[in-house]
Write a structure and sequence with these properties.
255 residues, 2 domains, five-stranded mixed barrel, 4 helices, 35% strand, single chain, alpha+beta, globular, 14% helix
Amino acid sequence: MGWLLGESSMSDEKILVDDLVVLGNAVPDIISDQRITVCTVGFSPHFGLIRIYPVPAVSPMKRWNVVEVPLERNPVDNRFESWKIQGSKSEWDKLSSKIQLKGQLPKAEQRSLLDKLHSMFGGQCVEEFNDKKVSLGMIRPQVVSYALEKREDYEAIAQTQLGWVTPFLTIKNYPLKPVIEYRCPNCKTKNPHKQQVVEWGVFEWMRRNPSAPEKVWENLHLTDAGRDRSFLVGNMTLHRNSFMVISIFRPKLNA
């Protein structure tokens, strides 16, 4: 299938995706023109794994939502899975209105979708994604350790976002960054993979529980028996060999 090829050639390609299942959002960041944006990853049966960036922080792009969104190639990101919403810069203020919520994937179908994603986009080691030059993939990890590390680029002052009562936190406004070490099912590396977790929900949990941020790990059930753990991982535009954990899935095995 076309989405298994690696980097795409740049073009004016435009598509309307009407069956995108949202798999996760990275914690918001600020781009050069001061827009507060989110990177969203989803799956379309017709187009495969899709990365959408930039996305307004307030939109229907929530995990397991099914949405319709018009996309075009991002001229500054030639990774095959990368797209942006049509008119993302010129129509930024009304961009969320272009994302139409069509429903939500039923809980009973979520587990089977994860199995399908592993079948189509899974790997025995993250190094396989580097070899294939794909920028998104699924891994069933064996978690070795996890920690909240001090953020070296921490910024105490958050920006005010239009329509929000309180300043809007972006990734650098969190003093801690979650990091996980794990082994793949058939690791090709000598040492475990050590990757930053950028899942927005993890940061939101820490924001809401500032007195005990370390308890976020209990909430993620990283080592509990009876869970089928999956990581959706993706690389960075400027560092194609460096991957981060975008979403953590942990459905119960007997649910």
